Amino acid sequence: MSKTINTAFVKAFIAALLIALVYPISSQASVSWIVHGRGFGHGVGMSAYGAYGYAEHGKSYRFILGHYYRGTTIGTLEKPRVVRVLLDISPGDVEFSGATSACGQQLDPGRSYEAHRVARSVKLRSSGGKPLANCGRKLRAAGKGKITIAGQGTFRGALETVPTESEAGSLNVVNALALEQYAKGVMPNEVPPSWPTEELRAHAIAVRSIALTGDVGGNGFDLYADTRSQVYEGLGSEYASTNAAVADTRGQVVMYGNEVAQTFYSACSGGHTESVQYVFGTAVPYLVGVPDPYDYYCPLHKWTLEFSGPEISSRLSAYLQGKLKQVVITKTGVSPRIVSAKLIGTGGTSTVTGSELSLALGGHDTWMTFEKVVSGG
To answer: For 306, what's the count of Cα atoms within 13 Å in the CB-facing half-sphere?
Structure first.
């Protein structure tokens, strides 16, 4: 019996060896990663989709603002405010039309003119280059409530140009206008005009408030025309519904005590907003994380990203030592958003912030968890 078994074993072994030579079997397991995420944006303050949900369920704009900005009230500005928005940095002359005056000169609104930089000053010229006036450090051109700037569009208010400090020969192209007019040019670029009236009213007040508290201290301007401040595209982007929301809440702002509140907002929160200190570093009494029960309306309420092992290691290479073995979340905010984490690699352990992780991986928010999937082997 022993001889029979041994012979059979040898034959089976030889057969298996031959199969292995013909059909090699991989000895290395395949590793992939799934990132489960929630929300879109920084998650601080008002969630636009969450506010939409509250409005859909009958809540007023006052309730919505009070929910996201705790301990605040609604106040009304005592006098009109003017803001200045950087539209562009022009490397050459800035052409404009629709102006009735500039630099002390009466102009024909049907003709085009240009701002031309000379050293540290600006000159007014005709569109053909004929000098018309020395404007000093700033050219200001105004018309009958609106002005058209070549390459930019038509805007309410006035055009102002000043020499750019950081770029020789360039001009900062600035739109100076009333706060109410600015809000009209922001609203449809930050929230869909078809949304419920109460959400639009809440958003109009938040837009005003952040404009007044978000001064960037620029050369001739207070605000950017993009997401560094708020997306502003002027008269051509306005809608009747968003203009109505601005008019309905004219002059209203969010107040904390006697000061206008800094009304951060983002698209959606994933179900819970975040306290500001875990995102921007300094605690603010009214910017605390709160439940956001209607955020599920947001298309990015939940999202996933998938990576192969080599791909995720490559994306994290600026922070990772070797190849990624494990992600350990070491600190979160009041929501599950990552404040800091450890990356355990084949070459050692390193630390990374939630923002660095999200940026490297193309995440929509810092609310992320990591699933390692091992197959084969």
So the answer is: 3
DSSP bridge partners of 274: 44
Which residue carries 């599920």 as its tokens?
296
Q: Are 237 and 190 in contact (CB under 8 A)?
A: no
CB 176 within 8 A of CB 221: no
Distance from C-alpha of 257 to C-alpha of 255, rounded to nearest angstrom: 6
Mean pLDDT of 47-68: 98
pLDDT tens figures, 83-105? 999 999 999 999 999 999 999 99
What CA–CA distance (Å, rounded) separates 274 from 334? 6
What residue ranges do the domains of the chain occupy? 30-39+303-375, 46-80+181-295, 92-169
Task: Report the distance separating Cα 207 and Cα 254, nearest Å.
Answer: 10
pLDDT in tens, 279-327: 999 999 999 999 999 999 999 999 999 999 999 999 999 999 999 999 9
Q: Which residues pair with 123 in a beta bridge?
A: 116, 134
Question: Rounded to an integer, what distance in angstroms lies between the CA atom of residue 270 and that of residue 303?
Answer: 9
Give the C-alpha separation, 332 to 180, whole Å.
38
What's the predicted TM-score (pTM) here? 0.88
In this prediction, residue 343 has a pLDDT band, given cuts at 50, 70 and 90, of: very high
Residue 339 in 3-state DSSP? strand
Cα within 13 Å of Cα(311), Cβ side: 12
pLDDT digits (tens, 9 = 90+) for 256-276: 999 999 999 999 999 999 999
Cα gap 185→221, rounded to integer Å: 16
DSSP string, 198-252: HHHHHHHHHHHHHHHH-----SS-SEESSTTS-----GGG--HHHHHHHHHTTTE
* pLDDT given for residue 377 in this prediction: 59
- How distant, in Å, are the alpha carbons of 55, 183, 271 from that of 79? 29, 16, 38
Query: CA 311 to CA 217: how far, in whole Å?
Result: 41
Measured distance CA(124)–CA(102) in Å, rounded = 8
- Here the tokens at position 20 are 């292995």
Decide: residue 251, CB within 10 A, 0-12 exposed, 13-18 middle, 19+ buried. middle
Strand-strand pairing, 302-308 and 30-38: antiparallel
What's CA 364's distance to the chain center, in Å? 10
